[in-house]
Amino acid sequence: MSLDTAKIDEHIERLREGNTLTENEVKALCEK
């Protein structure tokens, strides 16, 4: 698993828990 994939999975988990991501994090995900 690449570092990017691990990071995305972490963001998804945070979203599932109801936490929001920062605008920069959202942009980073959209660029994948």
Largest beta sheet, briefly? none
Q: Helix count, per DSSP?
A: 2
Question: Helix share of residues?
Answer: 55-70%
Order of helices and strands: HH
Low-confidence stretches: none
pLDDT averaged over residues: 77
Report the strand count. Answer: 0
Radius of gyration equals 9 Å
Shape: flat
Strand % is under 5%
Detailed description of the structure:
With 32 residues, this protein is mainly alpha-helical. The chain has one domain (1-32). Helices cover 69% and strands 0% of the residues. The chain has helices spanning 3-16, 23-30. The chain is flat. It starts with a helix and ends with a helix. The mean pLDDT is 77.
Please supply descriptive tags for the structure shown above:
mainly alpha, 32 residues, single chain, 2 helices
Summary, kept brief:
By secondary structure, this protein is an all-alpha fold. The chain has helices at about 5-15, 25-30. The chain has one domain (about 1-30).
SSE layout and pairings?
Elements: H1 3-16, H2 23-30
